[in-house]
Every structure is written in C-alpha cells, then in structure tokens.
Design goal:
Elements: H1 10-15, H2 30-42, H3 59-71, H4 76-82, E1 85-92, E2 99-110, E3 113-117, H5 128-135, E4 140-144, E5 147-155, H6 158-171, H7 174-181, E6 188-193
Antiparallel strand pairs: 1-2, 1-4, 2-3, 3-6, 4-5, 5-6
Protein name: Nitroreductase family deazaflavin-dependent oxidoreductase
Pfam families: F420H2_quin_red (PF04075)
Family: Belongs to the F420H(2)-dependent quinone reductase family.
Length: 202
C-alpha cells in the first residue's frame, strides 16, 4: 500500500492547529463526547466528528513538533513562511480541570480578535483542545509575543464562517487541503479579548 507522503510531515503539523494538547491523555470516550456535545451545542459549538479523514500523526511526533513551534515563537520570518501567527492556546481540561497549553495557528479576526481552526491535519476527529474550548469557552487564554490575553471563544457558522474561511485559506492554503481530507467541517473559532493583554512577570 502506498504511503501518504504528507503523513507526519512537519509542514502538516506546524501549519495546523495542534491536534492534541501537550500532556493530555487521549480524546474523549464516546459517551463522554455525547455529554460534551450537548453542553457545547448550547453554546453554539458543533463537536461532531466526521466519517473519514487523514491519519493522525503519532503522539511522540506531535509533542516534538509542538516544542519546535514553541521554540520558534516570535520569529517574524517563521511566521511569514507559515502564513499565520503562532498563538499559545491555554484551555481548561473538560475532564481534569487542569490547564492545557498547545501552539495553534492564528489569524487576525478584526477588533483585536483572532481566528483559529480545529483542523487536526484533516483527521476525522476534532482536536482535543477543541473539546476543552467547547466545554469552557470563557476559560481560554492566548499568548502571543510575550503577552497573555484572556479571551472568549465563539464558533463561527454560515456566512460569518465562510468569510473567515476565505481569509484563512487565502493566507494559508494548506487549510483548504486539510478540509479536503475529511468530511468533517473544520470548526473556525473566533477568540475575542475579555481584558487588556498582560506582559509576563519579570
């Protein structure tokens, strides 16, 4: 059987929103996912998985690539190469209640907001961090260029999503390829600041 030349490629992982938070154990079980879906849909999130999609990159590779992305944050040339900024996304685990941090690709959304995509490289399932956001959309932070910003997460739908998707795929065409790999509509999420950004303590 011919192997997919893109499987596990750094470009796929680095250009995609990370498919699992560093330190998380595994994706939710089916019954638990149903509970999350009920809660999330009340907040406007659609957490349904698809029936087909690309293969998930092995966890050890994902963790190494996460570290690579984190080490390169702040490099303007790197961000230009990737077509998007790198945000450090902090969510609260929907089961553990512990904070989870992972790098994701971010796009300016206007009025100080950011757009992120729960792409997971085009796999059939949503990334684990997406379930955390869906369960607690008001317990999210992003870090960018040394600043920490508390944000509220909202999933976009309809014309609003279509407009944002056009912006995202124009800046970073690989997201269109991720969408092509799966029948799951990749969630587009707007992160709107709740307060002024803060700088890290010296």
């Amino acid at each position: 059987m011919k192997r997919n030349s893109h499987h596990g490629a750094p470009e796929e992982r680095l250009l995609d929103s990370a498919d699992e938070p560093t330190g998380s154990a595994h994706l939710p079980a089916a019954a638990e996912t149903d509970d999350i879906q009920i809660t999330a849909e009340r907040a406007g999130f659609d957490t349904r998985a698809g029936a087909r999609g690309g293969r998930r990159t092995p966890r050890p590779i994902r963790r190494r690539l996460d570290k690579l992305v984190m080490n390169r944050i702040g490099h303007r040339a790197y961000r230009r190469l990737m077509g998007c900024d790198t945000l450090v996304l902090t969510t609260v685990g929907h089961r553990s209640g512990a904070e989870r941090t992972t790098p994701v690709g971010g796009f300016p959304g206007g009025n100080g907001s950011w757009l992120i995509v729960a792409a997971a490289g085009g796999t059939a399932t949503n990334p684990a961090w997406y379930y955390n956001i869906a369960a607690r959309p008001d317990k999210v932070r992003i870090g960018i260029e040394g600043r920490q910003v508390a944000v509220t997460a909202v999933q976009l739908h309809g014309a609003e999503r279509a407009q944002a998707w056009q912006q995202i795929t124009t800046a970073a065409p690989q997201f269109a390829w991720f969408q092509h790999r799966t029948d799951r509509e990749l969630p587009v999420i707007r992160l709107t600041p709740r307060s002024r950004p803060t700088s890290p303590r010296s």
